Amino acid sequence: MTDTSSLLLQAERQCQRHGVRFTPIRRRVLEMIAAASGGLKAYELLDRLAAEHAAARPPTVYRALEFLIDQGLVHRIESLNAFVACPCPEHAHGFQLLICRECGRVEELHLDDVNAQLDRRARDLGFRVDRQTIELLGRCEACLLTTASA
Fold it and tell me: Mind listing the UniProt keywords for this protein, alphabetically (predicted)?
C-alpha cells in the first residue's frame, strides 16, 4: 500500500503532466480518501471537509471526486457507493478491486490479461466498453485469521 504523502506527490506530478489544477480542495479530498483504511462515501467526505471548510457543500465534494476519478487518482467502488485512492494512477489500464466485507480493506489488482480478454470478447459481440469495474467481495487474510482463531 502506498503512503499518503507519496500518493499526494504522485498526484501533483500527474496533474502537472496533464496540465490540470490540483487545487487545495481536490488535494484534501484525495488526502482524506488515501488516509482511510477502506472506501469513503461522499457524505462522509463532506462531513470531514465541512469540519475544516465551513463553505463545503455536496457539489464541492462531487466536483473534486469527479476530477480525481477523471485523473485516475481515485476509484469508485460501485457496490459500496464509496471511493478509494488508486495506489498507481500511472497504470492506465483496467483494474480489479478486492474488497473485504468485514474490515472494509480494499486492494487493487492489475490483471491485464483479464482486461484484455473481456475487451476482446466485448468487441467480438460488437460492444464497446466505456468503463470496467470488477469488484471481488470477500474477506482479507487478517479477517480470515481472526475468524479462524475465534
Answer: Cytoplasm, DNA-binding, Iron, Metal-binding, Repressor, Transcription, Transcription regulation, Zinc
